[in-house]
Amino acid sequence: MSRPGQPPGFRPPRPQFSKPRQNAGQPHGTARQPPRVNGSAQQKHAQWLTRADEAERAGDSVQAELCRQYAEHWFRVSRGQE
C-alpha cells in the first residue's frame, strides 16, 4: 500500500537503530586503550570478601552472596584456574 504521490512499491528507508561503531571519531590506525586493572587478583579477592562482610553486616544477604561470587572469581584468577 503506497501513500498518495508515491510510486507503487515505494518503501521508505529503514531507520538505523544499531549502536555506533566503537572507533567512530578515531583516526584510522589508533589502537584502543587496554583496560585498566586496579590491583592484583589477590587484592581484588580480598576487596570482594570485605564487601561481602560489609553487606552481611548490613543485612543484605543477596549482595553478600554476589560479592562472594566475585571473590571466588578473583581467587580462581589468582590461582590460574580460569
From TrEMBL:
Residues 1-15 have a biased composition (Pro residues). Residues 26-79 form the DUF4167 domain. It holds the Pfam family DUF4167. Residues 1-56 are annotated as: Disordered. This is DUF4167 domain-containing protein. It comes from Azospirillum himalayense.
